[in-house]
Amino acid sequence: MRGDRLTDKIDWVVIGLYALMVFLGWTSIYAAIYSEENASELISLSHNSGKQLLWIVTSLLIIIGVMSLDYKIYSSFSYIIYGISILLLIIVLGVGTVVAGSKSWIAIGGFRLQPSEFAKFATALALANYLSDINIKMSNLKTQLIGTGIITLPMLLIIIQGDTGSAMVFASFFIVMFREGMPPIYFIVGFGLIFLFIITLVVSKTIIFVVSGVVILIIIGVSVKHPKRIIITLLVGLIIVGTVTSVDFVLNKVLKDHQRNRVISLVNPDIDPLGVGWNVTQSKIAIGSGGFWGKGYLQGTQTKFDFVPEQSTDFIFCTMGEEHGWVGSLVLITLFVTLLIRISWLAERQKSRFARIYGYGALSVIFFHFAVNIAMTIGLFPVIGIPLPFFSYGGSSLWSFTILLFILIKLDSERMNVLMR
Amino acid sequence: MNEDRRYIIRGIILLIGIIFLVKLFSIQVIDDKYKAAAQNNIIHKVIDYPFRGLIFDRNKKLLVHNDPIYDLMVIPKEAKLNDTLAFCELLDIDLEEFTGRMKKARRYSYIKPSVFEKQISNKQFAEIQDKLIHFKGFYPEARTVRGYDFSSLANVLGYIGEINSRQLSRDTTNYYKSGDYLGITGLESSYEQFLRGKRGIKYKMVNARGIDKGSFNNGEQDTLSIPGENLTLSIDIELQRYAERLLDGKVGSIVAIEPSSGEVLTFVSGPSYKPSLLAGKKFGKNYSMLTKDSLKPLFNRPLMAMYPPGSIFKTLQALIALQEGVITAKEKIYCDGTLIGDHAPPGYYDVHKGIMLSSNNYFHKVFRRVIERDPTKSPFVQGPEGLTHWRSMVNKFGLGQPLGVDLPNERSGLVPGVELYNRIYGKGRWKYSNISSMSIGQGEMLMNPIQMTNLAVIMANKGYYYRPHLVKSIGETGFILPEYQEKISCGIDAIHFPPVIEGMKDALGGTAPRAIIRDIEICGKTGTAQNPHGEDHSVFMAFAPKDNPKIAISVFVENAGWGGRAAACTASLIIEQYLRGEITRPWLEDYVLEGYFGD
Rounded CA gap, B185 and B299, in Å? Predict the structure, then answer.
C-alpha cells in the first residue's frame, strides 16, 4: 500500500508533461521577441518573456492552492464557482476593457483579467456536478437540455462580448456529454451540417443539389417497401437544401465582416494573400521555412521580424515550427496527444462520476484549444484567436489551464478516498 | 457501453495529431515554396550602384562626370498618406497620376520598394527633402546622372538611357536588370562595358515593416560596387570647341586625326546639341524635340553622312594608277576640255600638275587606263574586269566598308561594283564611259567624312593608317584596345606618294589660296561635290606639315560651294590653331565665322 503523502498519490506523468510544455512555451516566447540588442533585458517585466516568468511563478502558487484545498470543495462549490464566473461575465459586459475588438477584459491595476478563461473550468465543474447525479440519464431529453444550457449560458455571454473564438471553446463540452452517453445522432447531424456548410463554400450549389438529389432518388428507389425510410430520406434532403441555401445568409448576415473574410480566406487563401490572408500566409511561411530540423534556437527570422502577427500569443507555434522544424512540431504534437490520452486514462480510472466527468471536461477544453490553434496556424481552420494551452503568452490563459489541469490532479490523487465514503 | 466511447475520443485525438504531423511534414519538409517565400520576406537586396567612369580629353581635362540625383522609392505596404494632395503638389503630379503610379507599384510588390518618381535633381531634392519625411513609406535613393563640363562633343559622347525590353532580352550575360541605365549611343554605348563598372549587392535583413535588421549571413554574400573605368579621349577639347565654333550655323563635319596614331583630335558634326539635354529627367521631352529638328542634330555626320567625295578622290586615283604602272609620275598627257567639263586649262599634265590644278580630263584618261587593261577584249568585258580589280584596291583604303571606329552606327560608304552597274545598265551592256565620273569622285562613289580624313592620313603616312579611334586609353593602366594599335597598309608603295603629295602642296596656291599659312606647308586637296538637290558641297582634305605630319583633316560643308573656300579655310584655321596654338589671320577667321562663301 502506497503512503498517504500527496507526492505519492499524484500523477507525475501529467505534471511532467505540464512542466515541459510550460518551459518550452517560455523559451518560444523568449525566442519570438529575441534580438541581439535586447537579449539581456528579456527577463525584465517590460517584455512578454519577463512577464510570462511572473505568470509561471504565480501559477506555482495557484497549484499549491488548488492542491491544498479539500477535494470535496470542487464538487460542492461547483455551482457557486459557476455562478461567480457567470456574474463576472456579466460584469465584464459593463465595465470591461475593449482589446482587439472584444470587450472581455477586466483591468485591475496594471494587469488585465479575462473572465472567459475562468468560465472554462467553472463550466467543467458545474457540468460534472450536474451529470454526476445518480438519477441522471443522458438519454433523457431534460438532461440533455439542462446540460446544453450549462454549456451555452457562458457561451452566449462571451459571444455578446464579441469574443466568438473563446465562445466556440465551450462547444467542446459536448465531448463530455458524448462520453456520458448522449445519443450519437446529435453528433452525426451536427458534424453533417458543418461538413455541408464547408462543402457549400468550396463546391457550387448546383453540384450539391444534383448529387444529393440523385442519391436521394436512388435511396427512395431501393426502399419502396419501407415508407418510413423514404420519409427520413426526404427529411434529410429537406435539411440539406435548407443548409445549403442558408450558407449565404449565414455568411453575410450572421458573421461579422472579419469572420466572413477568415472563413473565405481559409477556403481560398490566395484570394488576398497580403490582406485578409496575411496572417495565415505569413504563419505558414514561418512554419514551412523551418524545414526538417529547423533554423536553430533564436535563429528564426519570420517570427522575430514581425512577419507573423501575435507571435507570442495565438501564433506561438510558428516560433516552434520555424526554429525547430518538423522535429519540433513532432515533439509538440506528441506532448499534447500524450497529455490528452493520459487525461482520458486518468478520468477513466476515477471511482467517482464527478471526477471522471470533470476529467473529460478538462480534456475537451485542452483538446479544442490545441486542435483549433494548430489548425489555424497551418491554414486548416479559420483564424480564431484562441491560445495554445501552456505555450501561449498570457497570465489569464496560463492560470486557467493550470487550475483546470490541477483540479483534475487533485481529484485523481484522492480517488482512493472516494471508495471509503 | 458508454465506457467504450473513450476509445472513440482517444482515436479522434490521435487522428488529429496524425493529420497535423502529415500536414506539417508536407509544408515543412516537402514543399520548398515556404522557404523561398521566407527568404523573400526578409532579404532586401540593396543594389550599390557603381559610379560610371569619367571621361577626360587628351590633356586630362574632365569632360564628363556624375551628378547626384534621387529616385523616390515607395513601399506600398508602408505608404499611408494623410494628405495625398500635398504630396502630389510636392512632386508636381496630379491625383490621377498618383493613383496610377501607386497601382503600378502595388502590382510589382506590396512589401518591396519600387521607383515612384525618377531622377529628382539635386536642386529639386533639396527643396522637397524636409517635407518628404512626413510621408511614410516614401524614401529617396541616391543615383547619378551624367554631368557635362563642356557643351561639346554631344555626338561623340552619346547619352545614357533606361534599358528597354529588347536590350534586356539580348543581354545574354544577365548583367542588366529592368530599370538599369546604359549607354545608348556614342562612346557611352561602345565603351559601356568599361564605363559601367561593377554593381555591388548588399543583402540586408528587414522586418515586416521594412526596417533594417542588419546584414544577412554577416555580409558574406555582399559585394562592393567597383567604379567604372575612366576614359581618356584622343580629342583635344580646345581644338574641338574651336572647330565647333567655326562650323557653327553650318551643316557639315570636321574630322581631324593624328596620322601617326590614328587618334581623332577633333570630331565635329554640325549642327549638334548640348549633351546635357539628354541627361536626366527632361530626356524624353528633349529627345523628341531633337528628333523633330529638320537639321537632324542627332545625326552623327562624320560617320553616318555619305557624300560623293569630289576631287579629293583624285589623289587616290593617282596612287592606284601609279601602283598599277599604267602611268609614271613624269609621263605627260595632253588634256583639253573635250572629254569632260574642266576648270583646268588645256595642256600637258603629269601627276603633280593634275593634282595641283585638279584636272578632270587628266584623271578621266588615267582612270580609263586603270580600267581598260587588255585592248584585245571588248570594252564591255574590260569595264567589269577593270572595275573589279580597281575596287579591291580602293577597299584597302578603308572605303566601301566601316573603318572600325570606336563609335556605333558607322556607315560604310559605297564603292560601286560590277553588280551595281549590271543592275543599272544590264549585264554586258556597260563600259568605261558609263563609270568614268568616278575618276573625279563623282557618280555612284560615296564616302563618309571620317573616311575622307583617313585618306588624308594615308597620304600623310605614305601608305598606311591606324583605325581612327576616339579613346586614347582606358582606365588607370592606360589600356588600349588592340584593334587600334594595328598598322594597316593601303597596298600602295611609299615611292608613289611624293608626286601626289607635291601636287597637294602646290594645290593650295591653285585652288585654295586663302588656306595658305606662312611657314606651315599644308598638303591639301579641295573638292566640290556636285549636289543635284542644291548648292554644291564644299570639301577639303589635307595634312600638315608636309614633313613629319602632325594633323590630317577633312572638312565637309554642305551647300557651301567651292571646296577652296568654306572647307579649305576652315581646315586651314584648325591646322594653324593646332600646330601653332594661335590664329595669325583674324580676317580669315571672320570670313569663316561669317559663313558667306559666295563670290
Answer: 11
Phi, psi torsion values for B78, nearest 5 degrees: -90, -20
Task: List every span in chain B annotated with CATH 3.90.1310.10.
Answer: 45-144+194-232
Record: contact A334-B42, CB cut-off 8 A: no
- Residues B560 and B594: their CA atoms lie apart, in Å, by 12
Grid cell of B547 as nine digits: 614633313
CB B116 within 8 A of CB B78: no
* B37/A288 CB distance under 8 A: yes
- The better pLDDT of the pair B516, B211 is held by B516
Report the pLDDT value the prediction gives residue A213, as an integer from 0 to 100. Answer: 86
- Cβ of residue A306 closer than 8 Å to a chain B Cβ: yes
Average pLDDT, chain B: 89
A290 — contact with chain B (CB < 8 Å)? yes
**Grid coordinates standing for A239?**
435539411
Number of Cα atoms under 13 Å in the Cβ half of residue A1: 4
Compare CB distances from A285 to B29, B34, B209 and report the shortest one's residue. B34
Please tell me which of the candidates B6, B33, B209 has its beta carbon nearest to residue A348: B6
On chain A, the residues whose CB falls within 8 A of the CB of B14 are: 337, 341
pTM, to two decimals: 0.65
The Cα–Cα gap between A411 and A69 comes to 11
**How far is residue B158 CA from its own chain's centroid?**
6
- Asked if CATH classification 3.20.20.60 holds for the domain at B237-594, the reply, yes or no, is no
Is residue A331 within 8 Å of A290, Cβ to Cβ?
no
User: Do A360 and A367 touch, CB atoms closer than 8 A?
Assistant: no
A175 in contact with B at a CB cutoff of 8 Å? yes
In A, minimum Cα distance to B76 occurs at A274
ipTM of model = 0.90
Q: Which member of B9, B20, B213 has the closest CB to residue A374? A: B20
CA distance B539 to B566: 8
- What ranges do the domains of chain A cover? 6-182+265-420, 188-254
Q: How far is CA B539 from CA A165, B542, B560, B591, in A?
A: 92, 10, 9, 17
Q: Classify domain B45-144+194-232 at the CATH class level.
A: alpha beta
Residue B137, SS3 per DSSP: coil
pLDDT in tens, B205-223: 777 666 677 777 677 777 8
Q: A323-365, pLDDT tens digit by residue? A: 999 999 999 999 999 999 999 999 999 989 999 999 999 999 9
pLDDT at B91: 85
Query: What is the pLDDT, as a whole number, of residue A272?
Result: 57
CB distance B251 to B295 below 8 Å = yes
Cross-strand bridge partners of residue A136: none
Structure confidence at residue B498 (pLDDT): 94
Q: What is the pLDDT of residues B55-88, one digit of tens each?
A: 999 999 999 999 888 888 888 877 877 788 888 8
pLDDT for the residue numbered B211 = 67
- Enumerate the CATH 3.40.710.10 domain ranges in chain B, comma separated: 237-594
Does position B36 have pLDDT exceeding 90, yes or no? no
Q: Which residue type is seen at B585?
A: R
